[in-house]
Amino acid sequence: MIPSTDLHTFSRYIYTVSLLGPLNIHFQKKNIETMAANYEDRDPLFNFVVKEGNAVKGLIDSGMSCVPQPFVQPLSERIATPNGQTCEAVQPIDLSQIDGPCHTEVAKQIVEAAETLGFFQVVNHGVSVELLELLKMSAHEFFEQPPENKAVYLKEVCPSKLVKYGTSFVPEKEKAIEWKDYVSMLYTNDDEALQHWPLQCREVALDFLKSSMAVVKRIVEVLMEDVGVILEEERMNSLVGTKMVNMNYYPTCPSPGLTIGVGRHSDMGMLTVLLQDGIGGLYVKPDNGDWAEIPPLNGALVINVGDTLQILSNGKYKSAEHRVRTTNIGSRVSVPIFTAPNPSEKIGPLPEVVERDGVARYKDVLFQDYMNNFFSQPHDGKKSLDFARAD
Ligand code: OGA
Ligand code: NI
């Protein structure tokens, strides 16, 4: 727990950040109380939130009623309005028809969505809707524990390399910290998952992972089929050999207009399967279009294309830039499953696609190197792809 003097520092920290930047600085210089909360004081906040693992949730629970400066995003990253355009035009795809008489039609819907927005929703996906409800409940259960129960999963202290709890993406390198707590669970095998993943979520997360993998593989098959590639089972397994379930918790935020839940980014892997709750706030930006919200749809799963699939398809399939808005209507949870190649896998545009396109837009890279680069930098839209771009 935090000593009460620290709590004091934090409540001094919680001045409202004025949108009138220079005036605000002037005010701060004149006010000794607020000066203590100036930029130099990022450290105590960082220690409390990130290093000690109290996370954003701990900050809110300590009575914080305004957004501390280190969470305030530059104007360019803020999301002004809660509801811009929604992607309502994109109807959910009914996966129950994928192996029936309507296969061609369903495959076409999947291919089109992957080629344009890089995001779509699926229903009748074979993952039990009861399981989806349990997942959201267990995410709440995990994050609503006292901070000391979660802090055992901080990278610095957790004996297992499979589990990692934290706040934001790479907080030590970010200009502004993302308003998001998370726990990541890497999959190696069932026994290790059931042994090391947090008790509150291990069983449901493992069930979710297993039932979603069937969906992932079927969608990858369909996408590959459209470029004339049939993946051998072994190659398919190595392309989706890295599997991770995350639970994200976006605490209710006093000033959603100043913060960001997750900054603009694309996912690095093949496909992401995401369960979101009813709160909303997931936005996606097509290559030449405006940000639009993926509306929550009960029972549906969100699927999005990651960088690896964009690289393999030589740019045909779009790894979508997306971000998450914060809200003051309640705490939001989401549960993504990230699938990516084995670290030892070499990835590059598939020969069939290069032949068709007459040019390779990406070079071959070792996935381990791609991953290291991805995790070493703060979220910055689709910059991650530059690592594999052909010169
Ligand atoms: C992510 C992500 C979206 C969400 O974790 O990579 O984009 O809705 N999450 O939480
Ligand atoms: Ni993402």
TrEMBL record:
Domain of life: Eukaryota
Entry-linked InterPro entries: DIOX_N, IPNS-like_FE2OG_OXY, IPNS-like_sf, Oxoglu/Fe-dep_dioxygenase_dom
Any GO molecular function: dioxygenase activity
Domain Fe2OG dioxygenase: 241-341
Cell inner membrane found in the keyword field: no
Organism, as annotated: Brassica campestris (Field mustard)
Phosphoprotein among keywords: no
Protein name, UniProt field: Fe2OG dioxygenase domain-containing protein
Record keywords, A-Z: Dioxygenase, Iron, Metal-binding, Oxidoreductase
Family: Belongs to the iron/ascorbate-dependent oxidoreductase family.
Cofactor: L-ascorbate
Biological process per Gene Ontology, one example term: coumarin biosynthetic process
Pfam families: 2OG-FeII_Oxy, DIOX_N
